[in-house]
Design brief:
Number of strands: 8
Number of helices: 7
CATH superfamily: Phosphatidylinositol (PI) phosphodiesterase
CATH architecture: Alpha-Beta Barrel
Distance between the termini: 45 Å
Radius of gyration: 17 Å
Number of domains: 1
Order of helices and strands: EEHEHEHEHEHEHEH
Length: 168
């Protein structure tokens, strides 16, 4: 934002003087029985290293899933008992994901819903046991995705798709 005293977090402007929550705050505010999925943004290894250091204080008493579109960040969590998910948001990234993890499987994948059909879900199963998708905000699409074998739906409107999840 240049010299302006504003903080931009992609969706809104906020005061840079406000204290922003950090991972340790989130961990204190949530029950240890709640599994958190942490979606790492960007490609900086330092971020993954800092997250790993915080998670090490809580595993194995608490379960975590770590997701990243920059898959090399997931390597930082090797040996830590966390579920690792590789994310893909384009057809090219899905093809690359299938190639990259063909020899060494990944715990799961998180793929944009517009890229999924029964064939793609079957291909993803060749490299991962868990298939999640985002953003799923329509009940009809949620039912379709569950019907083709998707394991989990990530939504901006959870109340709309909750009835689908309860019947799946």
């Amino acid at each position: 934002m240049g010299p302006l005293p504003l903080y931009w977090d992609r969706w809104a402007l906020a005061s840079p003087f406000r204290r922003h929550p950090v991972l340790s705050d989130l961990l204190r505010a949530t029950s240890p029985s709640t599994e958190l999925m942490l979606d790492l943004k960007g490609s900086r290894a330092r971020l993954a290293e800092l997250v790993r250091a915080e998670l090490e204080r809580h595993v194995p008493r608490r379960r975590f899933t770590v997701c990243a579109r920059s898959w090399r960040l997931l390597d930082v969590f090797e040996g830590l008992p966390v579920r690792r998910l590789a994310s893909a948001g384009s057809r090219r990234q899905v093809r690359s994901l299938l190639s990259h993890f063909a020899e060494r499987r990944i715990d799961g994948v998180s793929v944009h819903e517009r890229l999924l059909d029964a064939r793609v879900v079957a291909e993803l199963r060749s490299v991962a046991d868990l298939v999640l998708t985002w953003p799923v905000n329509a009940p009809a699409r949620a039912r379709e995705l569950v019907g083709i074998g998707v394991d989990g739906l990530i939504s901006d409107r959870a109340a709309l798709i909750a009835p689908v999840a309860r019947t799946a």
